[in-house]
């Protein structure tokens, strides 16, 4: 999850491959399944004397994901939840870089189950 959080913080919109030190656990597989582009993600990890190179779908067959709940947005997908009120707050606080950064982060937030933009 740290890698995903860092990717999000740096503005990445998709992970195409992930290299781990062991096969991801069930929780991690489910978490990765909820990312934008998960259906194409490759996962690489050591096994025995070699490496396993598989798709996430192969690691998580018959998966349950956001689309099963009618959620179309996925984490890391490029999105912006702007509104006139949020835009006004950014203008009002333009002299405070920390406030502007926090407001911009709120606009990029991911809260699909609550349908809350921030």
What can you tell me about this protein's structure?
This protein has helices at residues 2-9, 26-33, 56-59, 84-92, 97-107; strands at residues 17-19, 42-47, 50-55. The protein is an alpha+beta fold and 118 residues long. The protein has a 3-stranded mixed sheet. β2 (42-47) and β3 (50-55) form a beta hairpin.
List the helices and strands and how they pair.
Elements lengths: L1 H8 L7 E3 L6 H8 L8 E6 L2 E6 H4 L24 H9 L4 H11 L11
Tally of helical segments: 5
Largest sheet: 3 strands, mixed
Mean pLDDT, all residues: 81
Query: Strand percentage, roughly?
Result: 5-15%
Principal-axes shape call: elongated
End-to-end separation in angstroms reads: 21 Å
Order of helices and strands: HEHEEHHH
What order do the strands of the largest sheet run in, or round the barrel if closed?
A: 1-2-3
Provide the gyration radius in Å.
Answer: 17 Å
Question: What percent of residues adopt helix (DSSP H or I)?
Answer: 25-40%
- Which stretches are poorly predicted, pLDDT < 50 over at least 5 residues? none
Overall number of strands: 3
Give me the oligomer status.
single chain
Structural class: alpha+beta
């Amino acid at each position: 999850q740290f890698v995903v959080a860092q990717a999000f913080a740096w503005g990445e919109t998709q992970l195409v491959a992930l290299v781990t030190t062991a096969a991801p656990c069930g929780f991690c597989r489910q978490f990765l399944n909820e990312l934008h582009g998960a259906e194409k993600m490759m996962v690489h990890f050591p096994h025995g004397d070699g490496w396993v190179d598989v798709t996430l779908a192969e690691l998580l067959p018959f998966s349950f994901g956001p689309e099963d709940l009618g959620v179309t947005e996925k984490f890391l997908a490029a999105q912006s939840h702007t509104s006139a009120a949020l835009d006004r707050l950014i203008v009002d606080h333009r002299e405070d870089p920390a406030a502007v950064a926090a407001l911009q982060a709120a606009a990029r937030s991911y809260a699909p189950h609550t349908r809350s933009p921030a």
